[in-house]
Design a protein that fits this description.
By secondary structure, the chain is α+β, with helices and mostly antiparallel strands. The chain is 28% helix and 33% strand. It is built from four helices and 23 strands. The strands form five sheets. It has a six-stranded antiparallel beta barrel with strand order 4-13-16-15-14-17. A four-stranded antiparallel beta sheet has the order 2-22-18-19, with no helix packed on it. The protein has a four-stranded antiparallel beta sheet with strand order 5-12-10-7, with no helix packed on it.
Length: 394
């Protein structure tokens, strides 16, 4: 067989196969899930890149400022305390003795000051008598000068004794301050989360650069907020007071409303992690059936923009290049359509041009044979078809 004849036969078989394949494809339309473009609400949101954490508005990890042996442990884990309540006390008999000694010395100094001042008062009265007698020529000038000098000297002794008494009072304050270092009190009302130590055990303050467990971990459980990391790309969109939706793993699918109360003025750059900005969110309506607990994991969705009454389609219908496949009901074929989009989220995308209300966009883009020009048939009711979320787009 000549080469030209062989080539003609091969070409003929290929053409016949292509015609047969096209006929089979037209004869067996691919089933697709579609949804009609319609008017509705579209919100643009940003979410945390990693799980956020419920934080107490006030939390103090307390420890005495000096080391010592625990003599009194006044609280246990879970106990509720008020401001000023004693949490623990170190052995401090020596310091209590110092306070007592300072008080006795202060008492002695005060008594000496009173005696000196009484002597000064008496000397001043004697001086006045000598001056009066001198005017009547009944006292010598030398006696008058001696009385006046004695009165001034006594008054100076009085002032010196009073100063010494004030020093004694200050020594009491110093001794009491040293004693206060052995007593750990609650700076605010809250619940004791953790106690590290028992009676007769020694506690020491943390040396610089070497953290040690706190003696008492105190949490104010009357106020909580959520600390969540937001990707640096999305951080510029977030505004103070923005509406948020909060979900907690501990509460399942329940959604709690909240607002943004703080946006960190810097970017966190941690090794092996994306650069993020910390955002603090406050839940505006806390659950009443179960309390929030510090340490719960949380996810926040921050509302950036909201548009109502706009043409929208499921986000899963939009291809990476910004096109959609539209089903023509008249010919039951698929065609590719370029669109312009506006506000979007992982569920819905606003369409600003390229589609009209009622156009059927294809959702099942990953099915075999779903390409432009293919014959198709609708699977299910297009009015009831919902989007199949693939994740949150950047």
């Amino acid at each position: 067989m000549r080469p030209s004849t062989r080539f003609a036969l091969i070409f003929g078989f290929a053409a016949t196969g292509a015609i047969a394949w096209n006929w089979l494809r037209q004869a067996q339309p691919v089933a697709v899930r579609v949804q009609a473009a319609g008017l509705g609400v579209v919100e643009e949101t940003v979410a945390n890149t990693r799980a956020g954490t419920i934080m107490a508005c006030r939390r103090a990890r307390l420890a005495p400022s000096i080391g010592g042996q625990i003599a009194t442990l006044a609280v246990r884990e879970g106990a509720r305390v008020k401001p000023g309540d004693l949490l623990l006390e170190l052995w401090n008999r020596d310091l209590m003795a110092q306070v007592t000694l300072a008080e006795r010395e202060a008492d002695a100094g005060a008594a000496k000051a009173r005696a000196s001042c009484l002597h000064a008062d008496n000397a001043e009265r004697e001086s006045e008598r000598q001056v009066t007698l001198s005017k009547r020529s009944m006292a010598s000038e030398e006696a008058v000068e001696r009385a006046i000098t004695g009165a001034k000297s006594a008054r100076a002794d009085c002032e010196a004794a009073q100063a010494t008494a004030r020093v004694g009072a200050a020594k009491i304050a110093v001794a009491q301050a040293e004693l206060a270092k052995t007593r750990l009190t609650a700076p605010f009302a809250g619940v004791v989360a953790e106690v590290s130590g028992e009676v007769n055990e020694f506690v020491t303050p943390s040396p610089p650069g070497i953290p040690t467990p706190p003696a008492v971990d105190l949490i104010d459980d009357a106020c909580f907020y959520i600390s969540a990391p937001i990707d640096e790309v999305d951080a510029a969109k977030v505004r103070l007071g923005a509406e948020t939706r909060v979900t907690l793993d501990a509460f399942g699918k329940r959604v709690f409303p909240g607002t943004v109360r703080r946006i960190a003025p810097y970017v966190l750059d941690q090794a092996k992690q994306a650069r993020t900005v910390e955002v603090e969110v406050v839940i505006t309506a806390q659950p009443e059936d179960a309390p929030l607990l510090a340490g719960y994991s949380a996810d926040v969705e921050i509302l950036v923009e909201r548009r109502e009454g706009v043409l929208r389609i499921p986000s899963t219908a939009v291809r990476p290049g910004g096109e959609v496949l539209v089903m023509d009901p008249a010919t039951s074929t698929l065609r590719e359509q370029a669109i312009e989009t506006g506000v979007k989220n992982w569920e819905q995308t606003e369409v600003t041009s390229g589609l009209a209300a009622g156009d059927l966009v294809v959702l099942s883009l990953d099915r075999a044979g779903v390409v432009a020009g293919a014959a198709a048939q609708v699977e299910g009711d297009p009015r009831e078809t919902k989007a199949e979320p693939k994740g949150k787009p950047k």
